Amino acid sequence: MEPDLADRPGTLDEAGARVVTVTVNGERRGGLAPVRMTLADFLRHELGLKGTHLGCEHGVCGACTVIVNGAAVRSCLMLAVQADGATIETVEGLADGDELSPLQQAFHRNHALQCGFCTAGFLMSITAALREGPVTTDEQAREVLSGNICRCTGYAGMIKAVRETSAQTHGEGA
Amino acid sequence: MKPPQFAYHAPTSVDEALGLLAEYGDQSKVLAGGQSLFPVLSYRLAAPEHLIDINRLPGLDQIERTPDGWRVPALVRQRQAERSAELAAGAPLVTEALAQVAHPQIRNRGTICGSLAHADSSAELPAVMLALNARMTIAAASGIRTVGSDEFFLFHMTTAIEPHELLLAVEFDEAGPRTYTSFQEFATRKGDFGLAGVAVTVTFGDGGTVERCRVVAAGVAPTPLRLTAVENLLTGTVLDERARAAARDAARRAVDPAGDVHADAEYRRQLAAVLVHRALTAVHDKAVHDKEENNHGA
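Predict the joint structure of the above. Result:
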């Protein structure tokens, strides 16, 4: 996180960790990553972006989903060193200041979260999916949600939130 | 858990990667998409001393046309292949199966070749490549060899790839005009590993009978399993309901799955048989549909 690290991407420091530089939510950031550190832990512990949560740490729950170079991925199934040079979006980048994104507002309106632990992963998965095209049926919405697990409030509110946001961003008829 | 300690190598040429594999061999694992390898590491099921990350190797990330079909090199992501209109038209079995491989978030990083090298016997892509009679291009520092899919899958998570070798690409042919395919799977939740899966390719002869076919089941044996008894039964027949029912019964006799907490052996056997029937029915319906279209056009 020291500013000078951003200018030495990919080099090794004495302790065997490597400098990793990423553009995260539009900002160029650098940090030190031991080679076995996952991207998820790097975002949380090196860059302080603790909105990304870790549930299972083996790719099943989806809580750690972030967008890397435009594609939603599990940040627990990728090493930080592999992300060197990548453009990353995390949940912290969704809102514009205090203005929540349309999807976040739809989650709020539809009670699509309770404890919130899984929410960041869902938001990033859905954000990536809605960029690919509209979601016009409940079945499509379920498909979009299928890679993430919620263990408290369930999916009904999320399905509504996905469809409302899709109608808002892609148009009602889409 | 966190992955165990390892030394990390990120070679930037195939030769460099093969040199590292020659040096570290069975103390190393190749990292491509990582969607199977990282869970294995996080569970501490394996603790390789060296991880050889091939993601920075050049020239391995695009699907290539060959005279007879396609070559899918080691860094082609599953999602990339799933979105290929060319593959959807000429190798629809691949496209159809890819939609059932885990979730988009996994397919965004997971590679076709990685799934083959990992060789989970429940996985979709090994069964598909066996049904397509695919050829694996395997490289070592000493040279390149090709292994057919019938010789590639050896046991649970075990393939013909030696520890010092790298799976460079998989090649398969385009489906000809009278070839039809189907992939069928049943999983309790969308994106889970199937309890069983079936991949079928059928080529019809001039008279409308089955000229040749390959029928492969996943999740019922230590490797994807060719059901040769079913293939032999179907070859030369008209694929009517009687033949399809006989194929289903032959499939039930041909598989001897193990039971586990997800499904007992008898359930898996029944499921494989039913999926064979469904796949053959889908193939039959597609062939009939095309024939009707052609008649209308004539």
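Strands of chain A lie at 17-24, 27-34, 65-68, 71-74, 87-89.
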